[in-house]
Amino acid sequence: MHNSDKMKEECGVFGIFDHPDSAKITYLGLYALQHRGQESAGIAVSDRTKIKNYKKMGLVSDVFKEKVLNSLTGNISIGHVRYSTSGSSVEKNAQPFSVYYSNGPIAVSHNGNITNSYDLREKLEKKGAIFQTTLDSEVIVHLLAKSEKKDFLSAIFDSLRLLKGSYSLLIMTKDSLLAARDPLGFRPLVLGKLNGKYVVASETCAFDLIGAEYIREIEPGELILINYEGIKSFEIDKNKPHKHCIFEYIYFARPDSLVFGKSVETVRKNLGKCLAKESFVDADIVVPVPDSGIYAAFGYSEESKIPLEFGFVRNHYIGRTFINPNQDDRNFSVRVKLNPVKEIVRGKRIILVDDSIVRATTSKMRIEALFRAGAKEVHLRISSPPITNSCFFGIDTPDKEKLIASSHSVKEIENLLGVNSLAYISIEGLLKSVNPNHHYCLSCFNGEYPFPLDPEKAKFRLDNFISNDFNF
Fold first, then answer.
1. Per residue, what are the HEC states of 188-230?
2. What does the DSSP 8-state code read for residue 113?
3. Which residues, 6 or more positions from 114, have their beta carbon under 8 angstroms from its beta carbon?
4. N or C: which end of the chain has fewer CB within 10 A?
5. What pLDDT, in 10s, does the model give residues 241-289?
6. How far apart are CA 188 and CA 167, in angstroms?
7. Beta strands 230-235; 222-227: pairing state
8. What's the rounded Cα separation, in Å, for the pair 256 and 72?
9. Is 11 a known active-site residue?
């Protein structure tokens, strides 16, 4: 169940080819991508004869101790950090997913959501396929195994062209690494080089940590094959209009990454500047909600000439494992994570900047905390438009009826939160703030999905019918 007042991260993938310390490099890459998923982590390696796979629930640093990394010997490696958007948060659903079939061993890491996985799974099961997990990603492996194409590359094309939805995908065989991105380009995927060896990652921040050189984005609808003969690029389908996820800029990606060809930090500052132009209000200080609102708050302060102050202190040592058995305890956990600095906010007219409002529960508690600390006024500014619809492309959003903006006007949310004023950035302002040469998916704001889909099937959870305690 989605209990947060934030959009939930999807996943992060990393891969490296022909490096003697491939598992350790992948560990570092995943460490840099930890923000994209904190529930499980996994690394698979190939030594050209077999694939070893190690994955557990937990953070990268907890899952991979030195003894484990030393046992993962091989020159090719892929890794994955996960937040469960499809399939429950249990160890059997951790990735990479690895199997042995007629063409040999393969391992798969997937970021995204296959919106037609329900129908594909149903067809595959009727043909005798037996699934080991509740992941939509496992469909890809079964499509490969069932393909009538004789060579592996043709089977990959045959399988990927049956998929709808979003995927930034890494596939490892015993002697090759493949990277593919869906034709609409929902999720980021980038190519780089480390000492002459090719690396692939969800974000460029992973390259920065390992000292790799950024080469380029893997294009929407592109499949890259890396093997001991070199690197080749193939076209899956490039004739569809791009629909990059706008929330990569607003919230998901790290601010030090390049995403869809533009600096995330720059875009977030642009969002704040646009907010100041669209919804200026006279105030004493601009206060960001850490960490999600920091760069937009910088932009708002710069444009409005109102000084920025860090009026909240964030406790960085509160984990995702904090026990929240009931609503009272959830309220307490919000207070544990963020605490207002009374000396900064007392008697001040505050512009509070955040990236989004989902349910409005934690927003309300933060605002109440500011008033308890002595704030004179609180004006809330949000660097995304109102979220009115669920996402089906790799983000875990609540059901539409649980999204506060789907059933309340801006004025009603303002009254519910108890703020002096509330303003969101406009869709037009949002688009002006990002890379104007790209096209974006705005379905969570306007309900206009890139293609027709059945919401119930697109967000299907097999876990509703299978106990998490059942071991396959």
1. CCEEEEECCEEEEECCCHHHHHHCCEEEEECCCCEEEEEECCE
2. E
3. 86, 120, 136, 137, 139, 140, 163, 164, 165, 166, 167
4. N
5. 899 999 999 999 999 999 999 999 999 999 999 999 999 999 999 999 9
6. 9
7. antiparallel
8. 30
9. yes
